[in-house]
Task: structure prediction
Amino acid sequence: MVHSGYFSLPNSLILDKSLSSSDFAVAAYLYSLYSVYGYDTLLGGCVKVKQSTIAGVCGISTDTVSRVCKRLMKYGIIIERQRTIREDRTLGTYTYTLKRFEGQNYTLISKKAAGMLQPKELRVYSVFCLCRENFKNSFYHSYRDLTGLIQMKKEELIAVIGRLIHLGLIRKQKRKTRCGDYTENKYFIVVHSRGRISRKKRTAAASHLSRCSRPKALIKSISKLSNNFIGSMIAHKTDFVKGFLEKKQNFFKARGSPLNAVS
Result:
């Protein structure tokens, strides 16, 4: 299922300790493209993208992208990499065939958040998204547990968490035991929902007033209402009152004093 603003990553890929931060960033970007623009073959999921594009998004050089792709092929994440040749015999864009992780759980990652992060930050943010509880977007772990999951030093992890907090992607809440000692921190994944301002429906009175915004339309509307009101009175009054009201009705129709007004 494709969610607007998110792409899915296999949990086993996020927790793969053999991958470096650059390896994970390139693999995550390829799978994000596959979830939107990719297509399936017998070997796996295919996606076509330039190395320069991967380098720009992941914040690494094109030479590093080439080395990372070779390592991902060694790990079996990239099954095949082919490059087209144009009619003028120049090299074209690479097409990557990615491994399909069938029968595994996936984690949704925000595209907006991923575009703001460097490889190390993306790795930590993805692990945080994996650890969060459903519908709460929060979890609590000690630094020891997190360093074991991410394979990162404690000082470096604290710096990355501070960066994610500064970017507004996560929040940290310190927790204490009953004795007053600090325990595991609680982390919240910040979810930015895209809202929509809906216009309030007009009532019958508001629609009538909007049609009467112009002076001519206003006069015509008042005249129409007055004629209807006087007409209803004529049907229930005596002959004298009927004659009087008929003259008044003609006054509103003429929009001025009647020519043969009788005092």
In short: DSSP finds eleven helices and nine strands in the chain. The chain has a mean pLDDT of 79.
